[in-house]
Amino acid sequence: MECIKQVVKKVSAINEETRIKEGIDRTFAFSKLDAAGITSNDLVLDLLEWANGIESLNAFMNMLDIDSIINIYSIWKSLKDELSEIEGAFDFPRTVVPLLDINGDVQYGLDTSDNSVYMVDMEADISEKICSDYRMMVSAIDKGIELGAIFFNKEYGCFECNDMHWQAIAKEFNIILPEN
Predict the structure, then answer these.
(1) Residue 149 CB contacts under 8 Å (≥ 6 apart), including other chains
(2) What are 90-107's pLDDT values in tens digits?
(3) Is the CATH number 3.40.1580.10 carried by domain 2-172?
(4) In the chain, where are the structural domains located?
């Protein structure tokens, strides 16, 4: 959890548009997620207790608040049910909780059974485990910022990557990058 706070602090220092929303009570968060059929764990509850969403991490990227988590999870579940006849289509574990919205169609989620990170692309109907432990993902992002592989483009209000450097960092931290 501390590694996440550290990276958000760095992002907030670089991008003045970033807004951390006030956290919510963890018992309330657990009850609300449980009522929606979402499996939480200490990390998810710690995140929501610290910040019930973070707006404008990037021009299109936000950490989801509890209502958005529930909404996106229900969309994922509906897509999974609709596509159940197609082998391998939108096959994500039900223990994955959406936490980071990249652009409305793509989210990163945490598998609460093992703290791995999934990338879920609703438009392409795919989900993929991209990192076996969230700490590796956060550490890679932190290193990317430190080394300038991830940098903020003020003109467009978004973070960009030097692809060659980011690919090397991702490989070092065993992160699977989507194929373009």
Answers:
(1) 143, 161, 162, 165, 166, 168, 169
(2) 777 889 999 999 888 899
(3) yes
(4) 2-172
The residues, any chain, with a CB within 8 Å of residue 143's CB and separated by 6 or more, are: 149, 169, 172, 173
Q: Residues near 51 by Cβ (< 8 Å), separated by ≥ 6?
A: 8, 20, 21, 22, 23, 63
Cα-based distances in Å from 175 to 68, 109, 118, 126: 26, 14, 10, 17
Segment 62-93, tens digit of pLDDT: 999 999 999 999 998 888 788 777 766 677 78
**pTM of the model as a whole:** 0.89
Q: Give bridge partners of residue 19 from the DSSP assignment.
A: 55
